[in-house]
Each structure stands twice: as C-alpha cells, then as structure tokens.
Design brief:
Elements (H helix, E strand, L loop, with lengths): L1 H48 L5 E3 L2 H9 L16 E10 L5 E13 L2 E10 L4 E8 L13 H4 L11 E3 L8 E3 L5 H25 L2
Parallel strand pairs: 6-7
Antiparallel strand pairs: 1-2, 2-3, 3-4, 4-5
C-alpha cells in the first residue's frame, strides 16, 4: 500500500515537472512572436492616425515631459476623470521630406466602464486631430464598444479647439462631442484621454519648439 502511495506521488511529481517544463518552452517559443505582433499593431496604429507620417521617432526632451505629466502642465485645473489618464508615449511624426508634421500620442484612460481604454491619437502642427485608433477596450457590447466606430471617433477630427466637452443633448459647436447612446461613462473616459493628448501636445510645442 505504501509503495503504491509513494509511486503515485512520484508519478504526480514527474507529470507536474514535465507540464511545467512544457509550458515554459511554449512561453519561450511564443513570447517573441507575440511581442513582434503587438509592436506591429502599434506601428500600424501610428500609420493609421497619421497617414502622411513616414517615420515615428522618440525624442528625449519630449520623453522627459511625458514622465512628469500632468505635473508639468501650466493650468492645474484640468480634470481627467476620477482615476486619471496616463500618457504612455509621444512620438514625432516625420513625413517623407523629413519634416515634423505633428505628434502621435499613446494615452490610457483609467475610467472606462469596463476598465482601461488605450488610444493612439495623431495631432498635426495646427493642433488638429488627424485620427484616433483604439489599442485596447473592454466596454459593453452595443454600448461602450461603439467607441470603436468611426462615426464616434470622427467627431474629434480636424477641429481647432483646445479641449472637447461631452454632451447628451446634441452638439451645438465644434467643442462638443455627442456621447455614445447609453454609454456616458465610456464617452467621458474617451474624451478625457483625447483632451489629455491635446494638452500634452500643446505643452510639448511650448517647451520644445519655442
């Protein structure tokens, strides 16, 4: 009886070790391809929001501003939601003539109904949004997930405003954005992220280029 018991334990240990080793091997084999695919998705999003961009480049001075955001902004009265936003990256958008044509900003809002929402936003030299792509979102299907629809995102494009306001009564001017039906929380979180991108873009222009 004891021999059978110990035999079972040994078999279980061998199976556990083998399974763990197999999982480690699978993780090792898939880690790099997954990382490459994720990077491709991000690069494709940069190109999508800034179609005239040829390359997207880091800048140390800009990185320093990003690390200190939002403490660096001059106006401390901006509201980015109860849980705030995180500016994850800002890259220079460079065209085929090697000219700076704007910035691509990756930003995460912490106030989505279903959790974090990460956006990539293109802003040109005239402070107009050229495009918005969603990298990650987990909102309610048929409600908050409609933020992925171009009909919602395009409300932000090519407008000369310093920030946007969400409205549930129908937009009356360029600054107002129609909220998603039944998804005011998602709409507000999305809007906070966009406003954060506009604000840090302006801060970068004032500090780096003036």
């Amino acid at each position: 009886m004891k021999k059978s018991f110990f035999k079972d334990i040994i078999i279980f240990v061998i199976i556990t070790i083998t399974a763990g080793f197999s999982l480690a091997c699978v993780n090792l084999l898939t880690k790099e391809p997954i990382a490459i695919q994720n990077e491709k998705v991000i690069q494709d999003s940069y190109q999508s929001v800034f179609k005239n961009g040829k390359t997207f480049e880091n800048d140390q001075q800009i990185d320093d501003i990003v690390k200190k955001f939002p403490e660096t902004i001059k106006n401390k009265n901006y509201y980015f939601g109860d849980n705030g936003i995180v500016i994850e990256d800002v890259l220079k958008a460079i065209d085929a003539n090697k000219q700076l044509i704007g910035h691509v900003i990756k930003v995460t809002t912490k106030d989505g109904y279903g959790g974090d929402i990460t956006l990539v936003i293109g802003i040109d030299n005239k402070d107009k949004i050229t495009g918005i792509e969603i990298l990650s979102i987990d909102e309610t299907v048929g409600l908050g997930m409609n933020a992925k629809n171009e009909s919602f995102k395009s409300q932000y494009y090519n407008k000369s405003v310093k920030s946007f306001i969400i409205t549930k009564t129908g937009k009356q001017n360029e600054q107002e954005i129609d909220a998603l039906s039944g998804a005011t929380i998602t709409s507000s979180a999305f809007n906070n992220a966009v406003n954060g991108a506009l604000i840090i873009n302006q801060e970068i222009k004032e500090v780096v280029y003036e």
